[in-house]
Structure formats: structure tokens, C-alpha cells
Design brief:
By secondary structure, the protein is α/β, with parallel strands linked by helices. It has one domain: NAD(P)-binding Rossmann-like Domain (Rossmann fold). It contains eight helices and seven strands. Helix 1 packs across helix 8, helix 3 runs parallel beside helix 4 and helix 4 runs parallel beside helix 5.
């Protein structure tokens, strides 16, 4: 807080763990948190990835650590959390970013697609939050930000399981926020619309699909990763000190109608 009693977006001295940080929204969140002053832990399915991102963050004067963190393995998640605590002594911010969205008509969804989506989007997020929250309780608090989606609030054809998983993320966010508030742990979620990332690029290359998306967004355009990561930084900061259990829509107005 500055001398005028106004909160500043300053994460200096904080340690932020970002899962799925090699590209897309995870990469944007890591860069934005580093820009705001945080030291960064890059949770990666392959810890040899993201060398360029590590270098970019170091150029900002921040500490950065790449950790092996395949979100399909609770053992790897546990080991990664332990590594962060051993090296930095704390985890002040967790960004749960990993998620998948195999597209299928509901009538054609396979058990393997269902399990993959629910395990990565819901189970992994829950247990990562649990493991990190145990450390946050010891240190007196922290910020957990879950990456949800507008899909958790609307129906999207060919995305039944994905929509279900993100609805679960939204309710998980509220439940964890309620249980962990007494430990000064804030839990919130960010719910973007279609954002231009490597993951959405194959969809958005289709001009008909792209136009159908734009027509659903009152602001009339596809979002940028930075428009999501800026909200993550806000929620991670003291400026959001009275916010918990919220799902922040970053959807250009899609869900207004």
C-alpha cells in the first residue's frame, strides 16, 4: 500500500507457480506475474521445455525455476511443490492453468476422452490446490487463481465434457474459497472466451468458425492472452485483497446474452 493508502499492483518478493506455462495463457501469465515483480516457477510437462521463457524472465531480473510437473501424475505434482518450497521457502501464488478440450459430439465421447478431460481439468487442479494450500496455511496465506472458461457457464456444441469440467472448476473455486478463507487463502477463477493462442489457432484459422465466434462476442473481436494475464495479476495482488470465490469473466460480453 502506498502513502495515499492505495493498493498497488506490486508482486515483489512473491513466488508464483504457474502450471502449463510453456505456451499460451500459461506463458502469458508467467510473463505478466514476472513483470509485476514475482519470482516464477514454470510447471512443465517436460522440464526441458521453455528455455527461452526462462531466459526472458531472467532478463527482467526475476528468479525463475523450471520444474517437472506432468499434471496427469499426482506424484509429479507433489514432487514439484516440494521442490519449490525447498528452493524458495514459500508459494505465494498458484495459477492452475493446465486444461484440455477434446472436441466430440456428446453421443461420440469415449471413456478415455472423458477421463482425460476430467482428470486434467478437475482432479489435477483440485489436488494441486490442496498440496499448495497446505504450504500456504503454514506461511499464513496465499492466492490461488484457477483458469476456468466461459464454457463453465454456457453450452457449447461438441464440448459437453469440457463444459462440465469448467462448471466443476467454478464450483470448486467457490468451495475452496469458503473453506480456506480462515487461512487467508484467496481462491478465484478467470473465465476467458476464445483467446488467440496456439491451442485455439487451428479452430480460429477456419474463417467461418472465427466469424461465428466474433458474432457471439458483443465487443466484436477475439481476445489476447495479455487480456487474461492482466486479470490474473490483479487477483494475485493486494489490490484484490477483499475478493475471493469469484469467477471473473473475460469474455467480451459473450455470456451476457
Amino acid at each position: 500500500m502506498n502513502k495515499n493508502n492505495q493498493f498497488e499492483i506490486n508482486l515483489g518478493g512473491k513466488v508464483a507457480l504457474v502450471t502449463g506455462s510453456a505456451r499460451g495463457l500459461g506463458k502469458a501469465c508467467a510473463l505478466a506475474l514476472a513483470s509485476a515483480g514475482a519470482d516464477i516457477v514454470l510447471g512443465l510437462r517436460n522440464s526441458s521445455d521453455a528455455e527461452d521463457l526462462e531466459h526472458e524472465i531472467r532478463q527482467m531480473g526475476r528468479q525463475v525455476l523450471r520444474v517437472q510437473m506432468d499434471m496427469s501424475s499426482l506424484d509429479e505434482i507433489r514432487s514439484a511443490v516440494d521442490t519449490v518450497v525447498n528452493q524458495f521457502g514459500s508459494i505465494d501464488i498458484l495459477v492452475n492453468n493446465v486444461g484440455v478440450a477434446p472436441a466430440n459430439d456428446a453421443i461420440d465421447v469415449t471413456e478415455s476422452d472423458y477421463d482425460l478431460t476430467m482428470n486434467l481439468n478437475v482432479k489435477a487442479m483440485f489436488f494441486t490446490s490442496q498440496m499448495v494450500a497446505r504450504q500456504m496455511i503454514k506461511q499464513g496465506g496465499g492466492k490461488i487463481i484457477n483458469m476456468s472458461s466461459q464454457a463453465g457457464s454456457i453450452a457449447l456444441d461438441q464440448e459437453a465434457v469440457y463444459c462440465m469440467s469448467k462448471a466443476a472448476v467454478n464450483h470448486m473455486t467457490k468451495n475452496l474459497a469458503s473453506e480456506w478463507a480462515k487461512y487467508n487463502i484467496h481462491v478465484n477463477a478467470v473465465a476467458p472466451t476464445f483467446i488467440k493462442t496456439p491451442g485455439t489457432e487451428p479452430w480460429l484459422k477456419d474463417p467461418d468458425f472465427r466469424q461465428s465466434v466474433i458474432e457471439r462476442i458483443p465487443l466484436g473481436r477475439i481476445g489476447k492472452p495479455e487480456e487474461v494475464s492482466s486479470v490474473v495479476v490483479f487477483l494475485a495482488s493486494q489490490a484484490a485483497s477483499l475478493i475471493t470465490g469469484e469467477i471473473i469473466m473475460v469474455d467480451g460480453g459473450w455470456t451476457l446474452k
